[in-house]
Amino acid sequence: MSFNSFGRIFRLTTWGESHGAAIGVVIDGCPPGISLRAEDIQPALDARKPGTSKFVTQRKEPDTVRILSGVFEDDRTDGPRTTGAPISLAIENTDQRSKDYADIRDKYRPGHADITYDAKYGFRDYRGGGRSSARETACRVAAGVVARMALAHVLGGAVSIKACLVQMGPHKINRVRFDWSEIEKNPFWCPDATAANEWEDHLEAARKAGSSMGAVVEIVASGVPAGLGAPVYGKLDADLASAMMSINAAKAVEIGAGIEAAELSGEENADEIRMKDGRPHFLSNRAGGILGGISTGQDIVVRVAVKPTSSILTPRKTITRDGEETEIVTKGRHDPCVGIRGVPVAAAMMALVLADHALLHRGQCG
User: Fold this and answer.
1) How far apart are alpha carbons 290 and 4 in whole angstroms?
2) What are phi and psi of 275, to 5 degrees?
3) What whole-number distance in Å separates Cα of residue 258 and Cα of residue 244?
4) Quick one: pLDDT at residue 354?
5) β-strand 290-291 against 279-282: which pairing, if any?
6) 267-317 pLDDT tens trace
7) Distance from CA of residue 25 to its chain's centroid?
8) With left for phi above 0 and alpha for psi between -120 and 50, is residue 360 left, alpha or beta?
């Protein structure tokens, strides 16, 4: 199975399966000299891990990370620091319940990658999906912490990356009430306290019915300097779109005004420019902080649409590996809205792309 790696200079390769002994990631290209401990990574994994509320899968995984390589400590360093060698991180799987999937061993789950994995490889890991499982995203979140540190190392610590849920099913936040301080006060990473209360009722109804809901994640990177990204095939927005679409269940990506840009006039869409404090100042940000594939210095704004979880209790029509028509009910522990746990994953992917482009920029432009 190929294409398990991502990035050019800051590059990661993830490994492991949902119901295997462990999952992990190897990070190559991280600059040396960065202070790195397992406890620096753990809070991000705790934010993504299952079982944190009734609105996510109840699989109980501590997601405790171990650093296996790539750091060194002796009496001349103030704690472990990266050496420039590959950093290997491992996370054990401790709460697999493979028996939950025994009934669907020979059935393809609609909306899942079962049928396509079988078509490509001639087999599939029916125990939770193997490599297609969202369990793999824990590796990305861990690597994202290292990416943030690399960004601070290269750019001087100016970049801030935040993410939130701005829509659940058809229910959107009210932008007038947008408040970043609210995202850790509710189980949905929602910046609108009123919307969060309403979403709880909607998702609880879906959960009790054995159904699921989609969502939209918004990621904002502030403090990114102008100049990251490159024409023609190294565009920052192209790499961000590719990174976000690699997340499980992602079905669409918007940057800046996104799809809405098609409805705007040229006058409305153009971000006018003035001078402020001796620097270019944009009067709007419909471009989402990127022009011609290169960062403008404004906030980089990306949104990702995440489909409803395909594992539901409502019977769905399907076929078996032998081509027999049948129905399927997916039992087990599944997220009623996988977009919730997608928030820290999307933030990690933003960090990974920006770290890679910061190092690429330094390599070409100094």
Assistant:
1) 27
2) -100, 140
3) 14
4) 98
5) unpaired
6) 999 999 999 999 999 999 999 999 999 999 999 999 999 999 888 888 999
7) 15
8) alpha
Tokens of residue 218, six digits: 């918004």
Cβ–Cβ under 8 Å, residues 68 and 26: no
Amino acid at 100: D
Amino acid at 53: S
Q: Is the pLDDT score of 126 beyond 90?
A: no
H helix count then E strand count, the chain: 7, 18
Residue 232, preceding bond cis, omega within 30 degrees? yes
Beta pairing class for 273-276 and 325-328: unpaired
Contact indicator for 103, 109 with CB cutoff of 8 Å: no
CB 64 within 8 A of CB 91: yes
Alpha helices in 5-113 (DSSP H): 38-48
The amino acid sitting at 44 is A
CA angle 227, 233, 238 (to 5 degrees): 75
Mapping DSSP to helix (H, G, I), strand (E, B) and coil, where does residue 311 land?
Answer: coil
Fill in the DSSP letter of residue 282: E
> What are the two backbone dihedrals, phi and then psi, of residue 325, each rounded to the nearest 5 degrees?
-80, 135
354 by Cβ neighbours in 10 Å (0-12 / 13-18 / 19+) ranks as buried
What gap in Å lies between CA 150 and CA 31, rounded to an integer?
7
Q: Look at the chain and count its residues.
A: 366
- Range 41-47 contact pairs with CB under 8 angstroms and sequence separation of 24 or more: 41/65, 41/67, 41/89, 41/142, 41/145, 41/146, 44/141, 44/142, 44/144, 44/145, 44/344, 44/348, 45/91, 45/138, 45/141, 45/142, 47/141, 47/344
- Using only C-alpha atoms, the chain has a radius of gyration, in whole angstroms, of 21
Contact status, residue 350 vs residue 302, Cβ threshold 8 Å = yes
Q: Is 90 exceeded by the pLDDT of residue 332?
A: no
Residue showing tokens 């909306």: 111
The predicted model gives 230-254 an average pLDDT of 97
Q: What distance in Å separates the CA atoms of residue 166 and residue 303, rounded to the nearest whole number?
A: 9
* Rounded Cα distance, 279 and 296, in Å: 12
pLDDT in tens, 150-192: 999 999 878 999 999 999 999 999 999 999 999 999 999 999 9
- The helix or strand, by DSSP H or E, that contains position 168, with its residue range, turns out to be strand 160-168
Report how far apart the first and last C-alpha atoms of the chain are (Å, whole number).
36
